Structure formats: structure tokens, C-alpha cells
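Review form for a predicted model. The reviewer records the input and the model, then writes brief findings.
Reviewer: anonymous (R2)
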Amino acid sequence: YVLHQAALPSVARSVKDPRATHQTCASGTLNMLVAAHEAGVQRFVYAGSSSAYGDTPTLPKHENMATNPRSPYAVAKLAGEQYAQVFPALFGLETVVLRYFNVFGPRQDPASFYSAVIPIFISAALKGRAPTINGDGGQTRDFTYVENIVAANLLACFTSTEGVTGEVFNVGCGERISVTDLWAIIQAQLGVKIEAEYAPPRQGDVRDSLADLSKISDGLGYKALVSLNEGLQLTADWLKAL
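Model under review:
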């Protein structure tokens, strides 16, 4: 089995350097698929991205919707998906695509310019600093704790082939929250009260995101094991220990 997680994450990074994002997320995935086929790998699980859906008004996002990528990152991740989907029929390599919705958890770096919002917010709260919210804070996301992602990968590996290989499955929590409300929860959990600062929206970001989990529930038996609140506390505990 190959579980292909490698990528250059971040929409903002892809806008700044689209070539590097393409080389890693699209060309790199094709290289991995070819290598897996040549090595006789049984099944290849690809870490896709909910960014493939783009800024469509329909919620929740389901796998049969037309894709509408809005950034080089989203385009490159979608290209990786499409490469993965042609390999079963053409080369006999079983593949499964998992579209991740805003993954978070321990070991995410809060210090990078391209860091995800949750480690940035928790780090700011622990240091007593105001975080920066891009846009008005009303944008919503389906934040998904990493343990849920691990569970989905294992199910994608070991579920029988029928109705699985060559398919795309959303992986999320199935609940959405605004960035402003996310900051409020983190403040409450950590016992701080700090007004956030606001900056212009980032290029390529979508307004709203929420996973429809019907297909992965029916096809792989997936359900989110860790809720958003539990995941935030576990992530905060890890960052406190650094």
C-alpha cells in the first residue's frame, strides 16, 4: 500500500509560486503513481483537497458536484486526483482519492507564513497576542482533526475493492464554523479574551466549505471519531507542551 500525503500545502504559497506547487502536487503525484505501478503496489491512496470544489454556493459539498478550483494549489491537487482515477483502468493499480477538509492537529507548525489557521490561533492565544483574520471572519470551514484523516486512510486501504477503487471520497467532520467563531472557541478553551485583528481576504480562498459525508459513510464505513472541540483541546495541549 502507498498512502500519498506529500504536497506543498497552502493556497497563498501556490499563488506566490505556482510552478513549485504544480511540480510537487501534480507532477509529483504522477511520479508516485508510476513508481507504485512499477513496484507492484496493490492500492494507492491519494490525499486530495476540498479546494477542488472551489467557491460554489451549494452546501454541503458532495463528490458528484462539478469541480471549480480557484487557486494553483487547487488545480494541482485536482490534477493529482485525475491522474489517480485513470490508473485502475489503464494500469491495474487500485486507487482511492480522499478529499480532505481543512486538516488540523498536533505537529502543525504555527510559525510559518503559510501555517494553517488553527495552530496560528492557538499559538496566539497561548502567547496573549491578537491573531490576524483575513477577510471579515464570516467565512466557514469544516475543520477536521488529523485522527479522523488517519482513520479514513486505513479504511481506504483495507476496504474491499468493489465500489471503492477509482472513487473519490470526502473526509471531514460534517460541521462548519466561521473563523470568528473558531477564535471565540479557542479563547474560551484557553481562558483568554483578545480582540482579533483583521486584514484583507487572501487571493484564492473560498468563502464556505462543508463536507457531505454520505458517500464515505456508506462506502467505507467512516465516521468522525474526534469532534472539533475535542480536536482543538488536543492540539492546544500539544502546543502547550512545546
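Findings: DSSP finds eight helices and ten strands in the chain.
Further findings: The chain has one domain: 2-240.
Recommendation: see findings above.
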